[in-house]
What we know:
The structure holds 2 protein chains of 2 kinds. Chain A is an all-beta fold.
Amino acid sequence: DIQMTQSPSSLSASVGDGVTITCRASQTISSHLNWYQQKPGTAPKLLIFGASSFQSGVPSRFSGSGSGTDFTLTISSLQPEDFATYYCQQSYSTPYTFGQGTKLEIK
Amino acid sequence: EVQMVESGGGLVNPGGSLRLSCPASGFGFSGTWMSWVRQAPGKGLEWVGRIKSRTAGGTTDYGEAVRGRFTISRDDSKNTLYLQMNSLKSEDTAVYYCTALASSGGIIFDIFWGHGALVTVSS
């Protein structure tokens, strides 16, 4: 199975800050990398698929990059609604494994 | 509007069985690959398994933790996804989400998510 490792596991930041979350795959996954946002008590929501393609309705302050084994999710200017937990997921091969999550908290 | 509402969750004894259902509407269910993802209390997301559409062969794949105990099936006439869970263990306690998969440029992703059903395995 492909292992996905996110860093950091948690992150504190202020409204208006820019932040970057990284995700590393244990083997190459080309661009088969998705990012999800989850708020407490709710289902995850797709943000980015294929490493860098936006899901409809996702604000432009979110961006994704990378290919092969190393990927990043960047939020350019944090808004109050962005404080949540973020997960990467590889869909290169089954099982479609998730990273352990990055909890983004308000400083 | 897309709706997917899981049902069938609840409390079950270790070693017991439970079947989750996920009726779906608002998209072409029969042509959509579907999956189950779970989340243990306070933990991250774990991929349970996937079923392809009938036209793609209808085959299933499972995560290692549930392989041989869980079975995913679908009834396209009812637009419903199922998860049959047998030989349940305490570590299967989680919220179970059904998801609809989409593909773009060969990239597969979970585009729609249900609200989740809580399964608690405890004596």
